[in-house]
Structures are given as C-alpha cells and as structure tokens.
Design goal:
The complex is a heterodimer of chains A (about 260) and B (about 270).
Chain A (H helix, E strand, L loop, with lengths): L1 E11 L2 E11 L4 E5 L6 H8 L7 E7 L10 E4 L11 H7 L8 H14 L15 H14 L4 E5 L7 H15 L9 E5 L3 H7 L2 E5 L6 E6 L12 H32 L1
Parallel strand pairs in A: 3-7, 3-8, 5-6, 6-7
Antiparallel strand pairs in A: 1-2, 1-4, 8-9
Chain B lengths: L31 H20 L11 H14 L1 H33 L1 H14 L8 H8 L3 H25 L3 H9 L4 H39 L4 H10 L3 H29 L4
Helix pairs in contact in B: 2-10, 3-4, 3-6, 3-8, 3-9, 5-6, 6-8, 7-8, 8-9, 8-10, 9-10
The chains are: A alpha/beta (about 260), B mainly alpha (about 270).
Chain lengths: ~260, ~270
C-alpha cells in the first residue's frame, strides 16, 4: 500500500503552516521529514494519519493494505502515549480489542510483537516500571500489533537518551529492512535529528520554515543495515542537511513563540 | 619527567569535617503509631478531666460513660435500629446522587454542547446549602424517606459532577489522540481510556461527596425523622442525655471512618497501577 501526500496545505487561523506538500511512501520505504521548529512536520504527519483535515490537498492511499491489517496507518508517538493502568501486554492488547479476533490470535500476536521488540520478559510490567527506551518499545510493539502498512513516527526517539536512541535506531533499521515485498512496512519519520534521518531514510524531505514547503528532497542510497552513525559519509550528509536548514532554523527559533501562542 | 600522580583518595587532615546533611526536612513518612497515640492521649486526658472533676459529668460525660451508653444501646437493639435507618438513607441518596453526578460530569467533560449549559447550572446551584431545600423536598416527596434521600442525593450530586468533570478534563489528551489514531470507537475511548484515566479524580470526589452525604443525613434526620442517628442525637440532647448524645457522635465518627475506609480500599484495588 502507498501513502500519498497530494499538494497538502494547512493553516491555523491566519497562520499558514504547510504549503503544497507532495510525496509518496511505498512498501519498505522510509521517508524522513526534517525542518526547523514550527515548520509543520507534526501537523503533516497528523494529516497523513487522518487525525487532522488539511485546508487544501489530500492524503491518499493506493493499493491494498497488508492482509489482516487492523490499522494501515499507525502512529508511534514521541511521548509513547501508553495507558499507565495497563501492563505492557494490556497496552498491546488495546489495539486488538473490538476486532472480533479469537483469544488464540490475540495471544499469538501479542507474543510475536513482544518477542520482536525484546519485551517478552516485561509483559506483566506497568509503563512506570520501564525505562524511556522500553516504553517506546511498547509503543512500537503496539503499532506492529495493528499490522500497519505505513508507520507514522512522530519524533519517536527524541525523548530518549543518546545510548537508548542508538539501540532503538538499530531496531528500527531492522524493522523496515524487510525483503521489499508488497507487505513490507513503509515509514514516515518526522525528526529534528539529522543523524537519525540519514541513518534510516531512503529519502529526506527538507521543509522550509513556516509555512513548510519541500525545499529539497535528499536521497540516501545504500543498504541502511550497513549504515553506521559514525560513518564519515553519513556524518557529511547530516552536516549538509544542517547547512540547508541552519538559517531557517535560526529564524524559526525567533518566530516559534508566536506560533505556539496561536496553536495554544 | 616523573608522572604526576592524581590521587583521588581523600586527603585526611585534622581540618576534615563532614558536609552538613540538608536533605531530611519535609520528607513524607508514615507515623501511624503517633496518630494512634495522639488519639489515646486525648481520650486519657478527657477521662482524667472527668475523673478529677474538672468537667461537669452532665455537660461532658467521661469516655467510660459514653462507652457504657453505647453498650446499652447496642444490647437493647436501639443502636441497630437507628444505624440501619441512617445507612439505608445514606446508601440510597449517595447511590442516586453519585451515579447521576458521575454521568452528568462525564457528559459535561465529554460534550461541549452539554458543557456550556451544564457548567453554568452547576455553578449556580452548587453554592446553595442543600439542607435549605429539605422543606421543599418534604412538600414534593412527603415527610417519609424520599425527602431525606433526595436531600442526600442532591447534596452528593454536585461534588460528584465537579470532581468527574475535572477528572475527565484532566485525562491526558495524548491518550485520547492515541485511541483515535488506532481507530478505537468513541465508546471504546470513553470506557478504556477516559473512564480509567478519570477514576483517581472520581474516587477523590467520592470521599468529599460521602462526607457531605453524612452531614446532610444527620441534618435531615434532625429536622424530620424518628429513627436514625441524627434523630437519636437530637433526642438525647433534648433530654440532657449527654452520654447518649456523645455515643451518637462516636457512631457518626466511626461511620465516616468506615465509608472513607471502603473508598480507600476501592482506590487501593483499582488504582494499584499508581
């Protein structure tokens, strides 16, 4: 299944935040979206996931979702958004409830996604008993349980420390480095972190400062499993990206207070 | 050139002294024994004051006399009659007021359409002393049980509305957004995210509402009842039976403690995740 941003534009009241954004993400593809603060990255993700209506343009899907997909477009949130009163297992179970699945299928799905995210031993733990990295693993396990076609990742590692980020990045690389079949997972990855973008993405959309427009699309070639954070080539690409957005980021920083006031 | 040794061990000199510890104030600690001891000390002081004649036995009987009165009332069955009448009224009123309050508070918290008129009505009616409405309820429902139950229901309704509305409003919006993003139905979001998320606030509201319910129960029983702890206390006061009067006060104190204990046990069970 493909997710298509078709000339999307949006504004909050008189404040334009996105302008004419178009791109496509297909199975096994990772598109990272970077740009200065307030350029509309998270708004774009919410529009793509159907949580917000754009003022112009459309978010479209083409093709069939994976078999038995419960939620083809699935979010992974920066703040994890876990139910504190449910265990790890219960949080994953939440997205399987109400779909008429048999107990055996639910149990098998939970077992599978917890194993894939290294959480098998923590199934009975409550979120507050877990580290930030483990909580985000629960967020990813919950997302995988819904068998998505495209994962919509909203700065999923930004609340984590550097070491945990590195470990989880390895896991994300494995997650999206399947065989490239029609059922492979696609990903839209919103981030401030340019190192994460070059490590994970096939294409990086660089947005301008508000209103966010696609200023440049940067392609990152090569097997992402072979990429290393300290690879000089990746470091160079990240620096190039930073040079692209540096001036905008400085300007956006000055404007950010106004945007946050309007957004409430 | 010789290496400079960086010895990180403390250099012991006669001038060494420990850093003053400044982290111990205002730390939360449980002092259950101290609380119990304070209660015992107060009772002993009261008993001493009575025994040494510092207090008039008519106006303030000793703890022993109060306990004797309580025993007599328990053995005669009088206590059970009054207490059961009070409990039925309190349970009925609290069940009606609490349930309606939670439902209305949820509606105000969830629907902007209900919120505008609902919040205004609650703000206008909440400050009314509910016992002032008892005569009106007697006119509407008669002098029997219904008017007393209605007073308690009306009195417990408003704190439950306010607590539930506040609790729903405080549920982490990111959790609701998560539910929407996974395509959960509105019913599922309410029952699996909003209600459990609001439960701590709702249970806190129950503590306040139950206390208000007991106050209204006693007031209503003093105004228009032959049975009930409130009626018993009023009758004892009229007859200058201060031992029976204070026995009734002790029963009320125990009733309040029991209700708070039940709500505490429910909190402990349902909010274990905290």
């Amino acid at each position: 299944m493909q997710l298509i941003a078709d000339h999307i534009a949006h504004a909050y009241g008189p404040l334009p935040v996105l302008d004419d954004i178009s791109f496509t993400v297909g199975p096994g593809e990772v598109v990272a979206i970077v740009g200065p603060s307030g350029c509309g990255k998270s708004t774009l993700l919410r529009i793509l996931g159907g949580l917000e209506k754009p003022q112009a343009g459309r978010a479209l899907v083409a093709g069939a979702p994976p078999a038995a997909s419960l939620n083809p477009l699935t979010f992974v949130f920066q703040d994890f958004a876990l139910l504190p009163w449910r265990t790890v297992e219960g949080n994953v179970r939440l997205v399987l409830e109400g779909h008429g699945l048999s107990q055996a299928v639910v149990a098998e799905t939970i077992r599978d996604v917890l194993a894939r995210t290294g959480l098998t031993d923590f199934a009975r733990a409550y979120p507050k008993q877990l580290s930030g990295g483990m909580r985000q693993r629960v967020g990813i396990a919950r997302a995988l349980a819904a068998r998505p076609a495209v994962l919509l990742m909203d700065e999923p590692l930004s609340a984590l420390d550097a070491q945990t980020r590195e470990l989880l990045m390895d896991d994300l690389v494995e997650l999206v480095s399947g065989e490239g079949s029609a059922e492979a997972l696609g990903m839209v990855y919103v981030t401030h972190n340019l190192d994460e973008a070059v490590r994970l993405a096939d294409r990086i959309l660089v947005l301008s400062r508000r209103p966010g427009r696609v200023r440049e699309t940067v392609t990152v070639a090569g097997d992402r499993r072979a990429r290393r954070s300290d690879d000089p080539e990746l470091v160079r690409r990240a620096r190039e990206l930073w040079e692209l957005i540096r001036a905008d980021a400085a300007e956006a920083d000055r404007e950010l207070a106004d945007v946050e006031t309007i957004n409430g | 050139m010789a290496d400079v040794a960086h010895d990180l061990r403390p250099a012991a000199t006669a001038d060494n002294r420990p850093v003053t510890f400044r982290g111990g104030l205002f730390l939360p600690r449980t002092h259950r024994l101290v609380g119990f001891a304070a209660l015992v000390a107060l009772i002993l002081l009261w008993q001493a004051a009575s025994s040494f004649g510092w207090m008039s036995p008519v106006l303030a009987p000793s703890p022993g006399e109060v306990i004797d009165a309580l025993k007599r009332m328990a053995l005669s069955g009088e206590l059970a009659t009054h207490l059961s009448a009070s409990l039925v009224r309190l349970a009925g009123g609290f069940a009606i007021g609490g349930t309606a309050g939670i439902a209305f508070g949820m509606a105000i918290g969830l629907s902007s359409l209900v919120r505008s008129p609902g919040a205004t009505l609650v703000a206008a009616l909440f400050p009314i002393p509910k016992i002032a409405l008892l005569p009106l309820f007697i006119l509407w429902f008669g002098i029997g049980e219904s008017s007393k139950v209605a007073t308690i229901a009306f009195g417990t309704f408003f704190p439950m509305v306010i607590a539930t509305y506040g609790a729903v409003d405080n549920v982490d919006r990111s959790l609701v957004r998560m539910g929407r993003s996974f395509g959960l139905s509105s019913f599922a979001i309410i029952s699996k995210i909003i209600l459990p998320g609001a439960l701590p606030g709702i249970l806190s509201g129950m503590r306040i509402a139950s206390s208000i319910g007991i106050v209204l129960l006693i007031a209503a029983e003093m105004i228009g009842a032959n049975e009930g702890v409130g009626a018993m206390v009023l009758a004892a006061g009229n007859l200058m039976q201060s031992d029976r009067l204070l026995a009734g006060v002790v029963v009320l104190s125990l009733l309040g403690l029991t209700v708070a204990g039940v709500i505490g046990a429910v909190e402990k069970r349902l909010l274990a995740w905290r």
